[in-house]
Design brief:
- This protein is α/β, with parallel strands linked by helices.
- Helices cover 36% and strands 16% of the residues.
- The chain has helices spanning 7-15, 25-29, 49-52, 55-60, 62-78, 83-92, 108-112, 170-182, 200-207, 234-248; strands at 18-23, 97-102, 117-119, 122-129, 157-161, 185-189, 211-215, 228-230.
- It has a 6-stranded parallel β-sheet, sandwiched between helices.
- α9 (200-207) links the parallel β6 and β7.
- The radius of gyration is 19 Å and the shape is elongated.
- The chain starts with 6 loop residues before the first helix and ends in an 8-residue tail after the last helix.
Length: 256
């Protein structure tokens, strides 16, 4: 697909002192990681994610929740960053200040080479104790299919992600609000724009005067608000956008 890059968006990026990017599940889906909206497969087809990714489910059946997340964790480990992830690494080196905010829990941005990533929903490859809250890297072996126990307090271990009904990490959310309020350009990539509070970040950036661009094959509740919309997958649109920015910044090009 040939992605048409708006000249005005390139000019805004050339002039920007601070670029913020918000990524959602569509970004990871291009790497083969199923989203919560995708039909579950195999053993998990009879469960709804909303029934498993909750504190109540963890208390009721920790073994089931741990097994489901172990399946998702393996999907993440098999996935690889795509061209869109790598383009954001290039973008980070082209602008004076760059903030990458993600709703994804797979760590693909870091694996691609992004240095500073604000993880709003945690990281599935980390583990913490549901009781004492400590992050844990090693724990006593548990029988297959059973949730392991914390080596510090004996509590049930869980993935270090935000379950439905839980608050987002306060520090990460505060940094995301600050970035949205201070950026000159915000790119909103592969997010449904319906999950709060992340969905309000582009709206805050818009109200504070930032140029907001949406990169998503599907229309979202944000589509009628943004200044620019690129109706293409991130793996195609982001490399094209960054290439246009690189060309615009060459000596003799228009802009600084």
């Amino acid at each position: 697909m040939l992605v048409e890059i708006p000249e005005g968006l390139v000019r805004a990026l050339v002039d920007a002192e601070h670029v913020a990017v918000l990524t959602g599940a569509g970004m990871s889906a291009e790497s083969g990681i199923p989203t919560f909206r995708d039909p579950q497969t195999g053993l998990w087809s009879r469960y709804r994610p909303e029934e498993l990714a909750t504190p109540e489910a963890l208390r009721r059946n920790p073994d089931l929740v741990w097994s489901w997340y172990a399946w998702r964790r393996e999907k993440v480990r098999q996935a690889r960053p795509h061209a869109g992830h790598r383009a954001l690494v290039r973008l980070e080196g082209l602008v004076p200040r760059f903030t990458l905010i993600t709703q994804n829990v797979d760590g693909l941005h870091q694996r691609a080479g992004s240095r500073e990533v604000i993880e709003l929903h945690g990281n599935i490859l980390r583990t913490r104790c549901a009781d004492c809250g400590r992050q844990v890297q090693d724990w006593p072996p548990a029988p297959e299919g059973r949730a392991p126990r914390c080596p510090h307090c004996g509590g049930v271990l869980r993935p270090d992600v935000v379950f439905f009904g839980e608050p987002l990490p306060e520090g990460a959310l505060q940094r995301a609000w600050q970035a949205a309020a201070s950026c000159d350009v915000m790119l909103v990539v592969g997010t449904s724009a319906v999950v709060e509070p992340a969905a309000s970040l582009p709206r805050l950036a818009y109200m504070r005067g930032a140029v907001v661009a949406e990169i998503n094959p599907q229309r979202t509740p944000l589509s009628d608000l943004v200044h620019y919309r690129l109706p293409a997958p991130a793996g195609e649109a982001l490399p094209a956008l960054v290439a246009a920015l690189e060309a615009a910044r060459k000596p003799g090009s228009v802009g600084r």
